[in-house]
Amino acid sequence: MKIRPILAVMIIFLLAACTPAAAAQTTTTPQPSIASTAAASITTGTTVLTATTAPTVAPVVVQSTTAPKFPINLPSGFAIGVYASGLNTPRMLAISPDGLLYIAERGAGRVVRLRDANLDGEADGIEVVAKGINQPNSLAFAPDGSLYVSETTRVWRLSQPDAQGVYQKREEIIKGLPSGGHATRTLLFSPDGKALFVSIGSSCNICKETDSRRATIMKFNPDGSGGQVYASGLRNAVGITFRPGTQELWATDNGRDNLGDTLPPETVYKISEGGNYGWPYCHAGRIIDPDFGSAQSCQGIQVPLIEMAAHMAPLGLAFYTGSQFPSEYQNSLFIALHGSWNSSVPVGYKIMRAAISAGQAGAAEDFATGWLRADGSVWGRPVDIVNAPDGSLFVSDDLGGNIYRIYYVGK
Questions:
Q1: Residue 99 Cα distances to 44, 280, 287, 342, 390, angstroms
Q2: Is the separation of the CB atoms in 217 and 234 below 8 Å?
Q3: Per-position pLDDT tens, the chain of length 411
Q4: 16: part of which helix (H) or strand (E)?
Q5: Cβ–Cβ < 8 Å for 289, 280
Q6: Strand ranges inside 338-381, DSSP E
Q7: Are 302 and 286 in contact (CB under 8 A)?
Q8: For residue 214, what are the CA distances in angstroms to 154, 169, 211, 222, 291?
Q9: C-alpha 176, offset from chain centre
Q10: Which among 115, 109, 112 has a CA at the least distance from the CA of 152?
Q11: What is the rounded radius of gyration, in angstroms, for the C-alpha atoms of the chain?
């Protein structure tokens, strides 16, 4: 009965004697990440194991559950859902440094924030972060995280948010901007954050302005000082943005009315400092105005990168910077068309896309349509477009009071 314990001891001794000395100690060596190292060789004793890169998994796109009131037509593979509803004239949009969507809710005189904490593709609720603002139109985050908000005649700087994100400090950065006429003011910081651009529309449909700030894009220091006209002759440049990775400022411009249904075209320009874009004497760099122009009015006038049908009212624009959409949509320019008010046949009320190659724009084509119905009725007016952190696009609609989310699900 004592033989089995002795044999067990002898077997353990023999096994230990046969194991290399290096194996007598246990050592933990950090291994390279398999996800980031392709075909990494790991040696263990005399056996070589080859670790290959884990298969790439396509990101899961969260699909919205609430559909728009009526169908929206999109290219194959794209879908649209209502991200938030019940807003009062939502205008321009901004994404905060922490990836949340902020909205200038013009009709309610406030700035609101939307978040999707449960990741169901829709906002969890409407969070008010500032109120008591007179018809806010546009928002811009400064490099320090403060939020600039435009009214018609002034610009506010909001800072010191509390634990709920409600801003506790409000400073009047710019005051005395012209009132009346085209009354919205759009804000944009330069890529380095050292300059604040403010677009100021004309006081009229067509006239000779007495205030040199009208029909311009102005440039200020972030503290509101140093205001100067950056570019002129822009009747109503509501949408302004920088092409990513460049210092190129691009802008939409709304052409004049009362020249019929087809003239002048709506335009998108690349804006140069000191550039003159023609209004009220010349339109689209080639059309002499019948009321104020002369034979020489279009000489030296900048020409647009994109022309679109008259009266469609291009407002916000955004270059696509995400990776969710197919390759042919990468870097494209998306333009929100607010829609006509005096065309005999309603036009606009949609989103158009222009492909961008080597900094040059192709022709604008329909991307999202359906807010203008076949019977001529209108149930939505797109205002602004921004890139969502997940690669979708957010779109504001100031007629329907909605924020839409456009995303790609695959063909």
A1: 45, 40, 43, 38, 9
A2: yes
A3: 444 443 343 333 333 333 333 333 333 333 333 233 333 332 233 223 333 333 333 446 899 989 999 999 999 999 999 999 999 999 999 999 999 999 999 999 999 999 999 999 999 999 999 999 999 999 999 999 999 999 999 999 999 999 999 999 999 999 999 999 999 999 999 999 999 999 999 999 999 999 999 999 999 999 999 999 999 999 999 999 999 999 999 999 999 999 999 999 999 999 999 999 999 999 999 999 999 999 999 999 999 999 999 999 999 999 999 999 999 999 999 999 999 998 999 999 999 999 999 999 999 999 999 999 999 999 999 999 999 999 999 999 999 999 999 999 997
A4: helix 3-18
A5: yes
A6: 350-354, 356-357, 360-361, 365-368
A7: no
A8: 14, 30, 6, 21, 19
A9: 28
A10: 109
A11: 29
Instruction: Tell me the CA distances in angstroms from 330 to 110, 242, 249, 393, one per residue in order.
Output: 34, 16, 19, 13
DSSP secondary structure letter of residue 205: S
CA atoms within 13 A on the CB side of 219: 14
pTM, entire model: 0.86
CATH of domain 78-408: 2.120.10.30
Angle at 205 between CA 204 and CA 206, to 5 degrees: 95
Predicted confidence at residue 49, as pLDDT, reads 30
pLDDT of residue 20: 37
Are 199 and 240 in contact by the 8 Å Cβ rule? The answer is yes
In the chain, where are the structural domains located?
78-408
- Per the DSSP assignment, residues forming a β-bridge with 156 are 149, 172
Strand partners, 104: 111
- The token pair at 280 is 């009220």
3-state secondary structure 302-320: CCCCEEECCCCCEEEEEEC
Q: What is the DSSP letter of 256?
A: P
**DSSP E strands: which ranges in 18-138?**
40-44, 47-51, 78-84, 90-95, 101-105, 110-114, 126-131
Distances in whole angstroms, Cα of residue 169 to Cα of each of 108, 129, 146, 150, 176:
20, 11, 10, 16, 21
Q: Which of 320, 309, 311, 315 is nearest to 382 (CA)?
A: 315
- Single-letter residue type at 252: T
Query: What is the C-alpha separation between 20 and 39, in angstroms, rounded?
Result: 28
DSSP 282: E
Distance CA 393, CA 325 (A): 10
